[in-house]
Amino acid sequence: MGSDLRISSMGTRNLRIAGLAVLALSLLGAALVEIVFLSFRPLNMSAELTAMLLLLGAAGVGMRLVWAQRSHAEGFPSLGGRRLIDALELAAIMVVDGDARILYWSRGCEELFGWPARSAIGRIARELLHIQRPLNPAEVRTLVIEQGDYHGEILARHRDGHELIVQEHIKRFTDSNGRPRGVLAFNDVTEQHKAEAALRLSEARLATAVAVQGLFIYEYDLIADELIWMTHGEPFFSFGDNEPAEPRWQWGPEHSAQVREVTAAAILSGQDRGHYDFEFIHADGSERLAEGWARVIRDDDGKPVRLLGTHLDVTERRAREQALRAGEAVRRAILATVPDALFVCSESGVIRACSATANHLLGYGERELIGHNLAELFEDSDAAPHRDIAAAVGRNNDAPWPLPVNVRRADGSIVPISFVAGHSTVEGAPLSVVVGRDMRPTIAAEEKFHRLNAELAQVSRLGMMGEMAGTLAHELSQPLAAIVNFLGAADLLLDKCEAPNADRLRHAIDGAAEQSSRAGEIIRRLRAFILRGEADMRAEPLVRLIHEAAALALFNARSLGIRLSYAFEHSDRLVLCDRVQIQQVLVNLIRNGADAMAASNSERREMLIATQLVADGLIEISVRDSGPGIAPEILERLFSPFATTKREGLGFGLAISRRIVEAHGGLLSAAAAAPGGAIFRFTLPVMDEGETRA
Amino acid sequence: MIARHVYIVDDDDALRKSVEVLLAAVGGFETRSFASGNAFLDEVAELPAGCVLLDLNMPKLTGFEVLRILRERDVRFETILLTGQGDIAIAVEAMKSGAIDFIEKPYDNRILLAALESGFARVEDRQKQASAIHNAREQIERLTPRERDVLLGLIDGKANKIIAYELDISPRTVEIYRANLMDKLGVRSVAEAVRIAFAAELVPVLPN
Question: Alpha carbon of A127 to those of A99, A165, A341, A487: distances in Å?
Fold first, then answer.
């Protein structure tokens, strides 16, 4: 029973009190017997009384005596000692004759069994109390006669019908008349049995709980330095059915040292609780991790006497915690490094977490945005797109993504951000993940693209006008020159013949010649006007220039599916040119190639732009396509204005390109490429290293 | 007067015709027209020396290309480039490639005629020079080997006696040869004889 009660410190304390009470009452009972013997033997005590007293002392009955509630002992008139009678009256004692008929019925019996003395006396005790013994009455009688006494537990019935478990002590004696008598003393142990049963149940429950939890509980005697009790350790130490009879410690010396440390710390600090982690090898060979808690129990002087401790296997729990921490670390790493502004929002748009880029982009400190609503950041939270995104954050998945929104930074400036939101549910709570991308670089790139395009368009227009004017000048200059020649001849012939109105004729001819020259002059001035001082010659990085031109040229649907590759002889080559004009040439050549490949519907659509150093500080840039190539009859007049194979083209592109290249001191040529397609080449002057640095 | 040969190379029929008419009106020119550079180059070897009026902007061979080929093959021609669209870059290129002039169409007749004038001056200079060399060579050819040896001695500025010693003849004989060669060359002084010898490229102008 003692070990049962040691399962908790509280139980231990109660146990101690109970134990002390038992001890005290036993001592009291013994003292009482001494008193009786010392005080009453010389007073010719009756044999009954003596037997009862002996019985009482031997059994240690009297646990239940409450001295203060008893003051007299009626129905026991033959006894002289009032105090003694009072004491005996309180015990449940009866005296029976040889037929087990009740002769005496104490107050204690009245209380225990509910029958008053007057109803009990004269009755057969067995019948009155419905006594059930493990032995039948005859056997009991025999035992009592042979041994003189009998001890046992019986079941008896109270007057009101409920059953009692009672400890019975029977002693046989002979009265003064020589008749056999028996004295029976009863001790009610019903409550004790109930408590024991409850305790057994409780312990069973605890054992189950301990087994389920994998909990190990032990008690350690600090004074004897030995383990005095422990729960079954199978879930913990995996003893299984072969639990050793001798409790043995499964932890290593390291852990023993930990336990000692806990104890030492407790003793030093006066703190009674300690906590420690330790590792152990499970019976299955695996390394396990456990947490231990211990409590020091002190005696009344405050000296630590015992240690109550528990061990819990936390291997799996620690692993889960580790995984959780790792997941959290990954999440933090994502938020710290994702290059977009990322917000994790509640359903209503309240920011729970955001990426470092979000803080940086919006100019906020690390945790400043948390707890704010995303919509608060929008420049004008009433504007339609902002409502859209606010609604979208609130789980409206029909919103058109991405949504462009102007967002106000911490310093008040506005950033255009393109938002995309996604929804998720985390542990039952809806969450929105909103990703915002800074649109400034994109806008800048688009602006640059448009500017380049506009520049090219301007140059293209000017080039086309110049080319038209040039063509016009050439085509008109021929007939004009012829007119002037003819007029000159007429003038000369007029000198030689005797015409009557020679002077007036000469005047008319001179006038015509003059106007012809004027017409020529007008054309010259037109050309000069269009071609005047356009070239802006600078050192330009050739590779970048080509990349930009290719991006501009292939920025249309017809260029889809073209495999463009480059072969640069050097990545840092500088050329001396007017960037816009040379890009105009490149765009022309690249678009021509792309258009030719698109028109031919050929499967293989490849374009190669290559550079190659040729003699005399010139670099040759070539654009090769895999289109149908150039027909020989076209090749002849390829660079003349109005020479085109394209329905919508004017045929100026190559004429202008050649003019530009020639103005740069280079040559533009076309040829058939192997295995098919066309290759256009042009040259540009290279800036050498020295010039580059200057 | 020597006929002045003008070759008109232009793809424009009307222009060719107008130049022919103009030059006929001026008089003194022999004109021939070619519709392309190739047509002209095919015949150039048989043509008498003269001036070429060459259009720059022609299909196939351009004026520059024709000029380059012409100068490789024959140096007897002076070329005037004509263009409908002139600019400084083309003018510079024209001069570099050896044209004597570059005229933008339409032009004043007088400019064309002046250009032709200077062209023919150069042609005729070259012809005179060529005939002078030709004459000198003929004259030198008429000398006997001994007379030529004496002439070489005179060119080196040697005295009669030295020449006689080197040729192993008497000074008197040297005198006779000298008189004969002067007579044959039709000169009265040694200096004149030396000039003919240089013109005939008998000796290099500069000593080795």
Answer: 12, 16, 94, 171
